């Protein structure tokens, strides 16, 4: 995108990668539910449906970031926060593969979203309007 800085495009790629990771986890949960490995079938189905909705939402946010849409900033920052928390939880649970990937993506996502070019692109046009001067035919006062 010509009006999107490189840092914002990297942030969009990070968001998309996190979406893919959730898609993989969702497919694994769906397969476990289908073969009877889920704790309860209903919870496995619910987890799969929530995962599909999350993948769709994160995909929309990634597209919004790639197009420098202002609305995408807050959900993208929250995604990085939650990804970092889940990554730390997975690291503590000795799941280094998933945990390390999530922590690295979360740190990279935060860095790209909070870089000055990304902040400028995502907050442009939000400054307070300048003080209005009275029309020229009326005296001030």
What does this structure look like?
With 141 residues, the chain is mostly helical. The chain is built from five helices and no strands. Helix 1 runs antiparallel to helix 4 (96-113). The protein is elongated. The protein starts with 5 loop residues before the first helix and ends in an 18-residue tail after the last helix. Residues 126-130 have low confidence and may be disordered.
What is the number of helical segments per DSSP (H or I, 4+ residues)?
A: 5
Overall 3D shape = elongated
Total strands: the figure is 0
Main sheet characteristics: none
N-to-C order of helices and strands: HHHHH
* Low-pLDDT residue intervals, each spanning 5 or more residues: 126-130
What percentage of residues falls in helices of 4 or more residues?
A: over 70%
Note the beta-strand portion: under 5%
- Distance from N terminus to C terminus (CA atoms, Å) equals 48 Å
Which structural category fits the helices and strands?
Answer: mainly alpha
The multimeric state of the shown protein is: single chain
Q: Overall pLDDT, averaged?
A: 86
Keywords, separated by commas or semicolons:
mainly alpha; about 140 residues
Layout of helices and strands:
Blueprint: H1 6-34, H2 41-66, H3 73-92, H4 96-113, H5 116-123
Helix pairs in contact: 1-2, 1-4, 2-3, 3-4
């Amino acid at each position: 995108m010509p009006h999107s800085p490189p840092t914002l495009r990297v942030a969009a790629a990070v968001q998309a990668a996190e979406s893919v990771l959730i898609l993989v986890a969702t497919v694994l949960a769906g397969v476990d539910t289908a073969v009877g490995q889920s704790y309860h079938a209903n919870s496995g189905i619910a987890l799969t449906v929530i995962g599909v909705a999350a993948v769709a939402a994160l995909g929309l946010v990634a597209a919004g970031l790639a197009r420098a849409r202002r609305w995408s900033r807050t959900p993208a920052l929250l995604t990085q926060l939650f990804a970092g928390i889940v990554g730390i939880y997975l690291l503590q649970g000795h799941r280094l593969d998933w945990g390390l990937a999530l922590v690295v993506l979360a740190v990279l996502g935060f860095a790209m979203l909070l870089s000055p070019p990304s902040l400028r692109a995502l907050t442009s046009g939000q400054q307070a309007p300048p003080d209005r001067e009275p029309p020229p035919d009326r005296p001030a006062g």
